[in-house]
Design a protein that fits this description.
three-stranded parallel β-sheet, five-stranded mixed β-sheet, 12 helices, binds manganese (II) ion, binds adenosine monophosphate, alpha/beta, single chain
């Protein structure tokens, strides 16, 4: 039930969503405030099935527009079928799939937030910053992403030369066969070629033996600056989020510096529940979120049905003591309906 002022929603269990999987059939009341006193959306509420922090949100995934293997439309259908209630497509350094993803989500009756994952160099380490809920047509954001993508082709040629030196030939052309967006050749495409040609058994083995620092095929690269990436996202009306923080090889001191600078530049969120985090990392970054006053995000980082360790919509819930990032983006969610 929705009250006429559109702010208080009484929610009853709905077995047509991920609820049956997640076994949360009891009725809950959720307060969804309407920012800035905006009128309630014309589209009637589809009832959320869970309290806000228990929403099955998956705000990190990749399509053929970067290094995923499913088209945005197929990804939307898969997410909805796996019980995702709020989805974001977050292709690397690229927003070219955003209008397709938003339309596909709408077509299957799933809420959507715009997304991207920006490659940043911080203290000589590659860090990924996810942007959520921005205007995908913002000119400064698009120019920044274009500049970030621009070195990828030359880097890929150097990667192929490095692989050739250890006897792996034709890797550039081989990787290109997997590329859906000529602007966005990535290590993942090389990994798929190395599996196809029998050099490795799976893509995880590729990254253990090749393409990472100190291994054949690795080419150091300078990506965007942290402050620039955060400003492109916030300037386009979005929220910047530190992606999968446990994946970076930082000392505690440098990690603290990353979070401190990120907040100073206007960053507001951190992924606490992701495919890359075990239980210990979820606890650690839940504490970091509270310490730095950050909103918490949740995303699988899904790339492909066979390669990805975490399926869309299958993550644990966000710890209840955290503020979910989607609570601060409700006006964007409504706008996309
Ligand atoms: P790039 O942006 O070209 O450096 O490629 C980075 C992408 O490689 C990541 O987004 C992942 O999709 C993939 N990747 C990096 N490290 C690994 C790993 N250890 N196992 C599997 N995939 C990885
Ligand atoms: Mn990727
Ligand atoms: Mn990433
Ligand atoms: Mn990712």
């Amino acid at each position: 039930m929705v009250s006429k002022n559109g702010t208080t929603v009484s929610i009853s269990g709905n077995t047509s969503t991920g609820l049956s999987v997640r076994a949360r059939a009891e009725t809950r009341r959720v307060r969804l405030s309407c920012p800035g006193g905006r009128a309630a959306p014309a589209t009637p509420w589809r009832p959320y099935t869970q309290a806000v922090h228990l929403l099955n949100a998956d705000l990190h995934s990749h399509s053929t527009v970067s290094d995923g293997t499913l088209e945005p439309e197929a990804l939307a259908q898969r997410a909805q079928a796996r019980g995702v209630e709020l989805w974001a497509l977050t292709d690397h350094d690229e927003v070219g799939g955003q209008h397709r993803a938003a339309a596909a989500a709408r077509a299957v009756g799933m809420d959507y937030l715009t997304g991207c994952e920006i490659s940043v160099t911080f203290a000589d380490v590659t860090v990924h910053i996810v942007g959520l809920g921005f205007d995908p047509d913002d000119a400064a954001l698009r120019a920044g992403l274009q500049a970030t993508r621009s070195g990828r082709s030359a880097r890929a040629r150097e990667m192929a030369e490095s692989l050739a030196r250890v006897g792996v030939r034709g890797a550039y052309e081989g990787a290109l066969k997997y590329v859906g967006n000529p602007d966005l050749i990535s290590r993942t495409h090389f990994a798929r070629f190395l599996v196809e040609s029998g050099v490795c058994g799976d893509t995880h083995e590729v990254f253990r033996r090749y393409l990472t620092e100190g291994k054949p095929g690795y080419v150091p690269h300078r990506w965007a600056r942290l402050g620039d990436a955060v400003r492109w996202i916030t300037g386009a009306g979005g929220i910047a989020v530190v992606a999968h923080p446990a994946r970076y090889p930082f000392t505690p001191t440098v990690e603290y510096a990353l979070f401190t600078e990120f907040v100073a530049h206007g960053g507001r969120g951190v992924e606490v529940v992701t495919g890359a985090h075990g239980v210990a990392e979820q606890h650690k970054y839940a504490d970091m979120a509270l310490e730095f006053g950050l909103l918490a995000s949740r995303g699988s980082d899904f790339h492909d049905p066979d390669e990805s360790r975490t399926e869309l919509g299958s993550l644990p819930d966000l710890p209840g003591r955290l503020r979910p990032v989607w609570g601060a983006l409700q006006d964007r969610i409504w706008r996309a309906r």
